[in-house]
Amino acid sequence: MPNTAPSLPIFLRLSDRPVLVAGAGRIAVRRIGRLLESGARITVVAPHAHEQVRAWAEAGELVWKKREAVENDVDGYTLVFAATDDTAVNAMLAEAANKRQVLVQRADDAAASDFLVPAVVQRDALQIAISSDGQAPTLARILRTRLDAWIPRAYGDLARLAGDFRDIVKARLPRAERAGFWLRVLDGPIAEKVFTGRMADARRDLAETLEDGAQTPTPARGEVYLVGGGPGDPDLLTSRALRLIQRADVVLHDSLIAPAILDLANPDAEFIHVGKRAARHTLPQEDINELMVRLAGEGKRVLRLKGGDPFVFGRGGEEIAQLAEAGVPFQVVPGITAASGCAAYAGIPLTHRDYAQSVTFVTGHLKAGELELSWSQLAKRGQTVVFFMAVKSLPIICEKLRQHGLADDWPAALVIEGTTVRQRLVVGSLVDLPERVAAEVVEGPALLIVGEVVRLNETLGWFRPSMESESQV
After folding, report:
1. Per-residue pLDDT tens over the stretch 144-184
2. Where do the domains of the chain lie, and which CATH numbers do they carry?
3. What is the value of pTM for the model shown?
4. What region holds the Sirohaem synthase dimerisation domain (predicted)?
5. Residue 361 and residue 430: Cα distance in Å, rounded?
6. N or C: which end of the chain has fewer CB within 10 A?
7. Considering 65, 276, 380, 392, which one is annotated as catalytic?
8. Is 16 among the residues known to form the active site?
């Protein structure tokens, strides 16, 4: 009778242990590949074999017995994999294995198996096994694929670093202090060096920490993460951005950061709104710079979260210049800039072989009521011009572009709250777009796109959220 009790997650060391695989088809190949990595001594019983199994046998990596499986084949093995395409043969082998107290896995019947083979995400020595207990193996594979995309490869390097120093730590630290020590190492500045490709520096710092006397807590050392939050949709965050968002002690965020992105942060973090919007400045830029330096000096991991990309009209260069001057460690994580994200979601290619061979990003932010730009360069055909922060200056922009040679009916569009479920698109021309926008309520972030590519939205626009979805953000 099938056992319905939950399975016990366990990792087996099979090096030089005998394992039997009955069957040599596609499923058996997957099993054998993992078994070879584990160092098991593998015997395959099957009258016919997949070409990969033949290659392994010819290379001496396994023994292939070219015949049908029989009951006595299970004798002397640590594990048995019944992976033939004959249900009766698999059942016979399972029964024989059970009589001999040998664990068996049937490829055709998870409920009748003694153990299950999980979907695995592997990063060097680090392995994450996912199982649905045989209820939904496809779901387990889906989760494996998603985790594989989300978990940085550097976690394997981090595991290897810990393994290299494990015996040294055991020799120098009493058991009660080891967990705290490793927590500081694996979730602190040393780990960040590994994640940013500075393995040699991480090894040096870990060795120095042990030489300096790891019995006492390592003084906290702060760091600043300058992270691009993208144009609004949380799915557009990079995996590194998400990791740093979730580990920050303090979050300094702009006004344009979507609430759904802030919801991803460490719930125990301190949130400080430092946004600047139009003429409303929560904190002057100089105060933001000083705040980051002070918080990092207190040993905190400071997340400076910006909309779009920090280096595209985000004043990121100014902020890290002051961090560098103060000697504060920092790293910069680029984000999808609003121009790229909003244009893609609006179905407006920024470049196109037939309409725009170049793209220019400019700021539409007014200074003392003026907008000093190279209008003669911007008012040219064959290009796309994207204006950031252009809602208030929209009438001036349209008028200047017309004065410098673009036609009255030259296409232009304003993307409002792009990439979110509240996205709206106001399409018009240089002569009528200001009037069309004036009839709208524009409170969220907006981006102006000018160029013939705007016309392509009629056929390429794919993201048209309904207002019913608004509650999702």
Report:
1. 998 888 888 899 999 999 999 999 999 999 999 899 899 88
2. 18-117 (3.40.50.720), 154-211 (no CATH), 223-336 (3.40.1010.10), 340-467 (3.30.950.10)
3. 0.72
4. 154-210
5. 18
6. N
7. 276
8. no
